[in-house]
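COURSE: Structural Biology Practicum
ASSIGNMENT: Worksheet 4, Part C
STUDENT ID: 0417
INSTRUCTIONS: Below are two proteins. For each, the amino acid sequence is given first, followed by its structure token string. Answer the questions at the end about the second protein only.

PROTEIN I
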Amino acid sequence: MPVHLLVSQLRFTRSEFIRSLAGVTEEEATSRFLPMNCISWIVGHLANQERRYWVMLAQGVEIHPELNDLVGYGSPASTPSLAEMESVWREITQAADRFLETLTPGLLQTNFTHQGKIIPENIGARLMRNIYHYWYHTGEAAAIRQLLGHKDLPEFVGDMSSAIYYPER
């Protein structure tokens, strides 16, 4: 069965995020232009959101809990290794995909529970939040790269052949 349209959109969004990082060195990825965080932090931060939503809440699996203190919302600024954050991001997105591939329109309208409490946003809203979060930080990473003096950055959304529209299934 093909994945839900929103899942294909998330996968496309992830690919655009990764495309936006092409050519960034380890040193550049840990450079900060206050008040922004660095690029390596952004990679870990997005991995942390997917970890919380699609691995911990959805599957009850705990991997890389250290991310929350390192790159979680509201945590102190940090400059983690880009190579490490990219590796963790790949591991987490692969684990997340195991759940995301099971999504149906009906399941998207349900809510996660955590510690016996229903989480107010349904799974579909969480998925859209995750997609929009990626786009926010993709733009931020582009701004950081401009400040670093990078030229010939991606100027627009890339090849969407992997994310074409089809009616909801």
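PROTEIN II
(use this one for the questions)
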Amino acid sequence: MPFYTYTQNNSGGFFAYDDQRGVAEYVVVEADSAEQANERAESAGLYFGGAGDCECCGNRWSTAWDDDAAPMVYGTPVEFQELVKNPVVYVHYADGRLVPGVVPGNESRRN
């Protein structure tokens, strides 16, 4: 089953995070199709169309359009560590698992 990656634009000058729902700077969703991935992403709190986003910065999230065989961010595989403090990515697996991860070379911008 493919993985779809959502990258967050820092609309309004900040990134939105929600550890309970699995939202970080990047969100990866395992799904059968882009449409199914978009539905699962919306149920986690992502939104499309820019409702409430900064007019000058653009929309925070865009719908999925491409897939990968494994969780990736800009072609770099997501790494999973036992204890991830301030994860930069959350992977939403089709079986319901929510796993935080890191992307080598991409430090978290969380405060």
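ANSWER KEY EXCERPT:
Q1: Helices lie at 34-44.
Q2: The chain has one domain: 3-101.
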